[in-house]
Design goal:
With 318 residues, the chain is mostly helical. 68% of the residues lie in helices and 2% in strands. Helix 2 packs antiparallel against helix 3 and helix 3 runs antiparallel to helix 6. It binds Phenylacetyl coenzyme A (FAQ).
């Protein structure tokens, strides 16, 4: 047996026994690369995901709504930071990951390439997008890689607050005037299908699922999580009194789950490949924010250097 084979066997045995892999443990190169890919795409999604909602902070309809939305957008920035830190434990530099995002090489979730046209979209994002994110991310709290799993615990708690604030916005609109209820329905019409796309391609088309599940990075397949999301969300839409825009959506008594229509996969891949309604706008806004924040990073580095110099001067005096 070669040394690598026995290391791989020990690694897989640890995974099979549900033990965590930590940064200093031996891991196959492909496991490391898969994690960097998924965690960095996830981090990018959080910081690009701030943009569609950030647009509405100045237009929130009340002080209470503004406070809730500011808190949510700040949370998304925090999630990005935990996730970049988790990726860095795998030996990659944050600057490199951010550069890949800015030159359009790195992926981030397709959902954030759709526009936010009305205030109801902020409700729909919290309800559906954060709802889908929770469905996908709660199992990641049991991911085999320790730093990613631990980051997810706090992220999921915060996503849960985001989902509630979104649903409450939808409920208020649906209990309001006919025009407000129509806004809520219009937002559901536009966000439903993109929310289903967040779970990724069907299992048969998912290139990474089988290996990621064997490594217990992913605990459930894309289709399993999408199905759970549909089953969870349909009664919530019924409670709001609005209709999910899918004529094929119906309860299957025998299977004890909902059947639902086919996703427009051409649209999904178009968006993933950079040709969605807002891809260019989102990347331009990200690059601009990064460039305008350069002075903050410079100041932080200058301050850190000053502290290090002070400590080394003090130790020379002593
Ligand atoms: N968009 O083989 P699979 C949030 C790509 S955070 C774009 O199935 P995998 C919080 C995939 O990367 C939302 N690309 O891949 C928030 C791969 O491409 P590659 C983000 C997608 O990794 C809320 C290729 O297709 N969440 O919402 C998408 O096994 C509100 C083949 O796919 C996460 O990142 C997509 N939707 O499964 C923030 C969670 N789907 O790399 C602000 C962690 C697939 O070969 C406001 N990630 N692709 O070039 C995951 O669970 C997984 O990575 C999946 C994809 C399930 C997303």
């Amino acid at each position: 047996m070669t040394e690598i084979t026995s290391l791989e066997e020990r690694f897989q045995a640890k995974i099979d026994a549900d033990q965590r892999i930590e940064p200093r443990d031996w891991m196959p190169e492909k496991y490391r690369k898969t994690l960097i890919r998924q965690i960095s795409q996830h981090a990018h999604s959080e910081i690009v995901g701030m943009l569609p909602e950030g647009n509405w902070i100045t237009r929130a309809p009340s002080l209470r709504r503004k406070l809730g939305l500011i808190a949510k957008v700040q949370d998304e920035a925090g999630h990005g930071l935990y996730l970049y830190s988790a990726a860095e434990t795998l030996g990659v530099e944050r600057d490199e990951l951010i550069d890949q995002l800015h030159i359009g090489k790195a992926k981030y979730s397709s959902i954030f390439n759709y526009p936010t046209l009305t205030w109801a979209d902020i409700g729909a994002i919290g309800w559906l997008v954060d709802g889908a994110a929770i469905m996908n991310q709660v199992p990641l709290c049991r991911c085999s890689y320790g730093p990613y799993a631990r980051a997810m615990v706090r992220v999921c708690k915060e996503e849960s607050f985001h989902q509630r604030q979104g649903y409450e916005i939808m409920l208020t609109l649906c209990e309001g005037s006919p025009a407000q209820k129509a806004m809520a329905q219009d937002a559901l019409n536009r966000w439903w299908w993109p929310a289903l796309m967040m779970f990724g391609p069907n299992d048969a088309e998912s290139t990474h699922s089988a290996q990621s599940m064997a490594w217990k990075i992913k605990r459930f397949s894309n289709d399993e999580l999408r199905q759970r999301f549909v089953d969870m969300t349909k009664p919530q839409a019924d409670y709001l009194g609005i209709t999910i825009p899918d004529p094929d959506l119906k309860w299957d008594e025998e299977k004890q789950k909902h059947d639902f229509g086919e996703i427009d996969w051409d649209e999904f891949w178009k968006v993933v490949k950079g040709h969605g309604p807002c891809n260019k706008e989102r990347l331009a806004a990200r690059v601009k924010a990064h460039e305008e924040g350069q002075w903050v990073r410079d100041a932080a580095v200058a301050y850190a250097n000053k502290k290090v110099n002070k400590i080394s001067n003090n130790s020379q005096v002593a």
